[in-house]
Amino acid sequence: MQLANWRLVKELMRTVDAVLEVVDARDPQSTRSLRLERLAERQGLPVIIVMNKADLVPRNICEGWKKFFELREGLRAVYISARHRMGTRVLRKVLREEVSKSPLAAGVFGIPKVGKSTLINVLKGRHSASTSPYPGLPGYTKKAQVFRIGGNVYLVDTPGIVPPEGVGVEREIRLTPVDTLKNPVKAGIEVIKKVLSHNPKAFLEAYGIDSQTPEEILEFIARRRGLIYKKGGEPILQEAAKVVIRDYLDGKITFFVKPPRP
Ligand SMILES: Nc1nc2c(ncn2[C@@H]2O[C@H](COP(=O)(O)OP(=O)(O)O)[C@@H](O)[C@H]2O)c(=O)[nH]1
Ligand SMILES: [Mg+2]
Fold first, then answer.
1. Mutation test of ligand 1: which of 3, 84, 113 has the most ligand atoms closer than 8 Å to its C-beta?
2. Rounded distance, CA 138 to CA 179, Å?
C-alpha cells in the first residue's frame, strides 16, 4: 500500500499548475483535506474538487455539492465517475478555464481510496498515444511521467496521497490497510452505522440483508460467505467486518450525505 506523505505531496505540488483534489462523492466533506487546500492556496495553485464515484450518487445531490463548493467554498467542482469514464471531458474543460497558462500540468491529490489511480488511468488510457514529456519541467520527468490528456493539458501520473483528516472511522479505515486494523469489528460497525444513517436500505441492496442492526448485518454476511468457525459454527464477525470495509472503500455500497442547504 502506498503511504500518505506530506513531503511527497508538497514536492508534487511544486511541479504543477493546478490541483485536482479527488474526494468521494458519497461524502465529499469528510473525504476532503482542508490542509491540502490551504497548502495549494499558499502556493497560488487553483484547486478543483473532483467528486468521484458519482455513479453511486443521484445527480441532484452531486449538483447540490457542486453548488456548495462553488458558492460557499469558492472552489470549482466537478463530479465524475472514473469507473464509468463519465465526466472527464468536463474536467478537462474546467482545468483549461481555471488555468490560463498553456501548456498546463495538473496533479491528482487526495486521501487514500477516493479513486486517484483509477482517474489517472482513465485519463491516461484515452491519450496514451500522445504521451510526451511536459515542456519546461527539466528533471521532473525522471521521477514522474507526464501525460498529455488533451489540448495543452498535461497530467502528472503520480498521485499525491494525502493523509486523511479528522477523527473517527473514515480516518482509521483509510490510513490502515484493512487486514491490519486493530479492531475490524468496531470499525466495521461504525461504517455500517454511518451508511445506515444515510441509506437504511444500503445493506439490503448490497447484500440482501434487511436489518438496521450492525451486528446482525455482520452475522448475515459471515454466514452467507461461509465465514464461520469450524468448531461451534459461530460466524467470524471480524472477517465479515473486513468485507464490509473493503466493499465500502471499493465503491460497492450505495449511500450519500446530503449537501448543506443553500
Ligand atoms: N463506484 C466507483 N468506484 C470507484 C470509482 N473510481 C474508483 N473506484 C473504486 O475505488 C477504489 C479505490 O480506487 P483507487 O483508484 O485505487 O483509489 P486511490 O487510492 O485514490 O488511488 C477501487 O476499488 C476502485 O475500483 C468510481 O468512479 N466509482
Ligand atoms: Mg492509488
1. 113
2. 40
